[in-house]
Amino acid sequence: MARVSTRNGLGPGGSPTLDEVARLAGVSRATASRAINGGNRVSATAQAAVDAAVRTLGYTPNPAARSLVTRRTDSVALVVPEPDERVFTDPFFAHTLRGATRVLAERDVQLVLLLARPGEEEQRMLRYLRNRHIDGALVVSHHQSDSLADHLAALDLPCAFVGRPWTSADKVAYVDTDNVAGGREATQALVERGCRRIGTVAGPADMTASVDRLDGWYAAMRQAGLADDAVIHGDFTESGGERSAAELLARHPDLDGIVVASDLMAAGTLKTLAALGRRVPDDVAVIGYDDLGVHERTNPPLTTMRNPIREMAEQATRLLLEQVDGERPAAAMRVIFPPSLVRRETA
């Protein structure tokens, strides 16, 4: 078998080796390795010498060797416990992905997308996380049954959630918006408009954002002294919003206002109202939630609560990277963004 020459510290094809870098920098091989791989216990003088040697020789670190030193994979996972058909059609996920990748672009860190339906796929995803194929996890659209915060806290894996988790909220980092305040403000806007029979198409009952927005709706209705019996849960999809609105209006045909927990469901609600011959906003005023571009294709343009998801994803990614870098413990990190009402023509 032919042997590869490594004379003069050069690797296959004449590429410089770590030994060559160490010799040129005048330091030990171990010091050169620590300087290149981000280790500690390297003086400023030695670091500068190694950096200069790397530039002079055009040395490129071996990723596998670097991983052995740093125990880092230079990758993080975006964990989405949802079916892929929803992930690729809901603008929520597109904005989340843009926010995360914008922050990661500043670092040499890759993003791995992990999708998992409940059951076998979820167990496979947990095995992947348990085996530390990534340095940390960014979790979005989590449900009560997936218990992801519990699993990740038990693994002691750096993680950050977009949205408050159901459990272990004191053990993991998360970024959220004040969904209770958002639900309350949306409802108050309809009350101030003069609506007196206000219903709501809430989100899935197993997601904290849905529960919080519904709590805000209840609070505003009670404060206004209005009946709070017109409630139905949807699934955060446009077709689901269409079906849920039809059922809600069949039960409560006298509604003059509807607060909808997502813009996609609000778009479906507008379709139902149009099919029933109900004018918006003259007969029924509608307010959605998210402001992620759905209003551009609704007729009339949708009034909504702005959910700053891109900013939330950016902040959550920064919190995750701070944990990966060992700068702060996870349990100390909470960031809450305020929602805001964006007035258009449906209310």
TrEMBL record:
The keyword Transcription regulation applies. It holds the Pfam family Peripla_BP_3. Keywords: DNA-binding, Transcription, Transcription regulation. Residues 16-70 form the HTH lacI-type domain. GO terms for molecular function: DNA-binding transcription factor activity; transcription cis-regulatory region binding. CDD domains: HTH_LacI (cd01392), PBP1_LacI_sugar_binding-like (cd06267). InterPro entries: HTH_LacI (IPR000843), LacI/GalR-like_sensor (IPR046335), Lambda_DNA-bd_dom_sf (IPR010982), Peripla_BP_I (IPR028082). The keyword Kinase does not apply. PANTHER family: HTH-TYPE TRANSCRIPTIONAL REGULATOR GALS, LACI-RELATED TRANSCRIPTIONAL REPRESSOR. This is DNA-binding transcriptional regulator, LacI/PurR family.
